[in-house]
């Protein structure tokens, strides 16, 4: 996720918050100012009712706007809200609502008296967790018919139905239009937080992927360099020419390691199965391991995606590194073919340790997760002194571009005929193949 997307998301959230502010606190102030304010300015209303109503209206508008604005700044309300409403402001709003209800009710204005109490009920509900919020609203709706109904009965004005039912409907409607925008705001904040966490997770996953690729490259090359350095040390007195050749190979490997590391940093390097099979042939022969490569001609021309070839290349590299690092192998076998709609790679060796360290590391497990995400699988088995790694990925549908044929030391062979790298007493000669 780029910075532009994050900036646009933040701008969108700011716009939604502004809209929600005008919808909830703004609507509350507007409703009070229009309906109650018009009643206060009405010359037909007695002065003894208008003066305290004007003072109560001022307090009610100020307290409601502040309380709802503070609610917008809080985290979404859950079963355990982080903060409750300020007690002083809530008491002021409730007291003003009582005044704004009692005065119109005394004058039998059944449509105006429930306005302020309904807004206070909705305001308090915004601070409550869902189950308590529902109880508050249900209780307010149930009690709302009583004051007006009793006043109508006492006055015997024939407006009992209106006096009892309208306040209940007004309370329910006010709660609906107040809590709806706040629910949308809370949901948007949760989604925004999830988006930010997703972006942070993507960055961390990319760092882990980069670290894994860097480990694969440097760990493999350094293992080979160490192996060739040990060989050169043994040959320096017995065969200086061969030792010099090994030292040149070490220098080449070090240069390749530096180049590959730079390529990974720049995001250019993509391991392929063909390259890794070629490299494994040379490296295993240099380690005096009888490496037998069996590559199905159909698999060599298989139409695999770059991603699939990259993953199989990583498996080949990890398996080769494990052979060198965690076994005393004298023989290794690599088999690659297309079967059952899957590209299948199998790498096995003898001389495995009794408790292979490869099983304790994260290399194979991390690769198994990546292959599973790509629709394939990676398994490994340990039987006696034999260790086998088997990978499978779906072959591409027809029409995609396949990789180039395997050439050189990994030239194509039939399914039953294996190209062999015979065991050689001369590791330097094997490395030159």
TrEMBL record:
InterPro entries: HATPase_C_sf, Sensor_HK_TwoCompSys, Sig_transdc_His_kin_sub3_dim/P
Region entry Disordered, spans: 392-433
Entry annotated with the keyword Phosphoprotein: no
Keywords on record: Kinase, Membrane, Transferase, Transmembrane, Transmembrane helix, Two-component regulatory system
MF GO annotations: phosphorelay sensor kinase activity; protein dimerization activity
Keyword Cell inner membrane included in the entry's annotation: no
Gene3D superfamilies in the cross-refs: 1.20.5.1930, Histidine kinase-like ATPase, C-terminal domain
Residues annotated as domain Signal transduction histidine kinase subgroup 3 dimerisation and phosphoacceptor: 206-272
Chain segments annotated as transmembrane: 21-41, 47-68, 89-106, 112-128, 135-155, 161-185
GO CC terms, sorted: membrane
Ranges of Low complexity composition bias in the record: 403-416
Pfam families in the record: HisKA_3
Matching PANTHER family: NITRATE/NITRITE SENSOR PROTEIN NARX-RELATED, SENSOR HISTIDINE KINASE DESK
Protein name: Sensor histidine kinase
Lineage: Bacteria, Bacillati, Actinomycetota, Actinomycetes, Kitasatosporales
